[in-house]
Amino acid sequence: MTIASERLLVPAQATRRRASFAVLLDRQSVFSWLMMALPLAFLAALVGYPFVYGILLSLQDRPVAHTGTFVGLKNFVHDAHDPVFWRVAINTFVYTIVATLLKMVGGLGLALAMNQHFRMKNIVRALLLLPFIVPTVLSTVAWLWMLDPAFSVVNRLMVALGWPKPGPSWLGDPTLAMVSIIIINTWRGLPFYGITLLAGLQTVPSELYEAASIDGAGGWERFRYITLPLLRPIILIVTLFSVIFTFADFQLIYVLTHGGPANATQLFATYAFDIAMGAGQLGLGASVALAMLPALALLIVALTIYLRRE
Amino acid sequence: MTGSTTDHLTNRRSFLKIAAAGTAAMVSRSLPAGAAGKTITILHESSFIKPFDEYVSNTLAPAYEKLTGIKVVYEVTSVGSLPTRISTIAETGSGADITMNGLLQVIQFSNKYLDVGDIAADIGKAQAGWYDAGKEGVFVDGKWKAIPFANIGQLMNWRTDYFAEVGVKKFPETWDELYEVGKKLKAKDHPFGFELGHGFGDNHGWLYPLLWSYGGSEVAADGKTVVIDSDETARAVDFCRKFFKDTMLDDCLGWTDVSNNKAWMADQISCTNNAESILWFAKREFPDIGKVTDQAMNPAGPKGRFHLLNLISHSIFDFSPVKEEARAFMRWLMEPKQLGGWYAIADSYYQPLLHGYDNAPMWDVEPRNKPYRDAVANAHLPGWPAPASRQVAEVVAKYVVVDMFAKACAGASTKDVIKEAQAQLKDIYRSA
After folding, report:
1. B47 neighbors B150 (Cβ within 8 angstroms)
2. Do residues B175 and B210 make contact, with C-beta atoms less than 8 angstroms apart?
3. Whole domain around residue B52: which residue ranges?
4. A151 touching B, CB under 8 A?
């Protein structure tokens, strides 16, 4: 008897346990956290840990291969006294603002052009993405050749048109070097803007344009009062991404000028790298890298609030 | 320059005789019991000269295994990635037992390296003594933290055909003479091209020697007192500005390390400052240019002639599980037979730091490389006369001295550029 009852009991218990687990799972609060657990662990490991480690590093005097000593905000004070740091800050803002504006205007123009009907539209659209697809290091090496006065297409052309030989020194002149890296960054980032805005353009219902046309709106009015307001959320999101990528740009500068001539093109990311990896001052390097944070965080918060209100 | 050379090993025969003498004796004496079957890993940056790396994997490693039973793994890391790779090994405490060091790694990682003063002393004694530069490059806090291997010198590379066009058959002895030649050559559309941008080697390679040859330096011998603001520095800066303006391509201000090589092979410039690789490459890929390429020591300034020490050395990690085996291996590797063979395979791209090789046969393969041998006698680390320190590494990584000259060339006043450099240097050396 006892044996039999025990036999009966076991599956019953299991069922109950299964049932309670199912009930638990049915609870929305539990289930949602369960679903979130993996991405959260992922974020903590790949974003949270390096970020916190970066902050800890920035508060230490930490030469490579030596144990660090806590120095509080000394590294940041050191940065504030470093004239190159301020040069780098100005460079980074100029680079980001000008390049983003150019990409925004150019990208919008590109999207509007691509939204027209013409032959081989799909092939042209695909080709437009090329600058974005080619690895940055490779395309930058190509630019390196194009900006070398001896081999440059531009210089050959200018010299042929009467400019004194060998033509402008694109990377040797401090101002031209900044102009050059902005142009290349714009060239590389334009397709991202263009294609994303094109996707946005295609969601604008054609009835709106038809209605506006009937009401007598011209091309500019249709753009001003229909296209632009409807595209605004997308423009804002693309701008947010673009600013983050541009602000923290590294590869282009590293390959092209390495911050030269005389720090004229040095940005936060390359300067931080030189200090941390070149000089072996991990703490000081981390503090330069973290100096990017307040500006970016402010921008992200402001744009997010604006988007929510929309 | 090599007048101080002892008369050991002065001809090929005696060199070989010493090279062949007693190899196994020393190794077996210094090896711990039970070493056979173990593995030693050496980390090296990929060489510009392929046979150099192959010589270790195909000749030296098998020979050592045959001799001792110890397997030698030669791990090659790509050019430029050595500091990062050493960082990883030093931070994690595993990955290699011996590593090659570039210019600044001995300073940065010295606390993870064994003191190898005893080995260095024995090697020096056996092979006619070390060059001072050898010790300067590896001596940290009173200890030999590495065994010097070679210098990759930065010297003057010049076009004999273009120089001949203005009647110059021999490379000028002083900066002033070189300036006069450069002015004439620029007028004939054969400008000079010296890197003034943010590369790594070719800018420091001539700008530190220029500063020193005018009597300037960034810091005093105590490694603390910043002394850049001097009349000597001002004269060097003034010279550099006119040297740039009257002899060079404008583009030099934006150059990185590849630029002068590219310009050389494209027949754009008539003189630059680079390592031997420019001749090595020209001879193989652009033979017409190779034929008219010659090399010379840096010109002298009012205070003498200087070169930048670009030292390569080997260190043993203090956490290696095979420390004693690694020590014994380094002794064996630095014996004339092994070391001489390794040097010889790369012509003279790697310039020995032992006087025993001053007249080694490797110098006869390409006589145009001989100035590189003579340049070691007055080569110094950046930051000289101060000893190597982390502050020196920071000054180099921040291009403080390079940018001082570059800003002057771009038009800033001598007073301003020195003032800016001084502020930066004081900030960096404050922690010394």
Report:
1. no
2. yes
3. 2-145+310-367
4. yes
What is the spatial distance between Cα B135 and Cα A177, in angstroms, rounded to a whole number?
41
The tally of CA atoms less than 13 A away on the side-chain side of residue A280 is 31
Alpha helices in chain A (DSSP H): 2-26, 28-43, 49-58, 74-81, 83-114, 121-128, 130-133, 136-146, 153-160, 174-202, 206-214, 219-222, 228-247, 251-256, 268-273, 282-290, 293-309
Q: Is A163 within a domain?
A: yes
Virtual CA dihedral for B352, B356, B358, B360, nearest 10 degrees?
-90
In a domain, B32, yes or no: yes
pLDDT digits (tens, 9 = 90+) for A37-88: 999 999 999 999 999 999 999 999 998 888 899 999 999 998 998 889 999 9
Nearest-by-Cβ selection for B427 from A61, A81, A177: A81
Q: Which residues of A touch B254 (CB under 8 A)?
A: 169-173, 177, 257, 260-261
Greater confidence (A167 vs B219) lies with B219
Residues B228, B316, single domain; the answer is: no
Domain count, chain B: 2
Closest-CA distance of chain A to residue B7, Å: 41
User: What residue spans of B70-172 are helical by DSSP H?
Assistant: 82-92, 105-109, 117-126, 132-138, 160-165
Q: Are B42 and B75 in contact (CB under 8 A)?
A: yes
CATH of the domain at A262: 1.10.3720.10
Specify whether B264 is located in the same domain as B404: yes
Q: Say if residue A25 is exposed, middle or buried (CB neighbours under 10 Å; 0-12, 13-18, 19+).
A: exposed
Residue A192 touches partner B, C-beta closer than 8 Å: no
Domain extent at residue A180: 80-309
ipTM value of the model?
Answer: 0.84
Q: Answer whether residue A13 shows pLDDT above 90.
A: no
Answer yes or no: is B61 within a domain. Answer: yes
Q: Does the residue B334 lie in any domain?
A: yes
Residue B375 counted as domain residue: no
Nearest to residue B194, comparing CAs of B175, B177, B217, B166?
B175
Would you place residue B33 in the very low, low, confident or very high pLDDT band (cuts 50, 70, 90)? low
Q: Do B254 and A261 touch (CB under 8 A)?
A: yes
Mutate: best of B198, B395, B400, partner A, most A CBs <10 A: B198
The pLDDT assigned to A67 comes to 87
> Tokens 């673009």 identify what position?
A242
Within B214-266, where are the H helices? 231-247, 257-265
pLDDT digits (tens, 9 = 90+) for A270-303: 999 999 988 889 999 999 999 989 988 998 898 8
Residues B160 and B301 placed together within one structural domain of the fold: yes
B219 with B304, same domain? yes
Q: Using a CB-CB distance cutoff of 8 angstroms, which residues of chain B are in contact with residue A280?
A: 83, 87, 104, 108, 390, 393, 397
- Domains in chain A, number: 1
Of the CA atoms within 13 Å of residue A229, those in its CB half-sphere come to 8
Report the CATH number at residue B67: 3.40.190.10
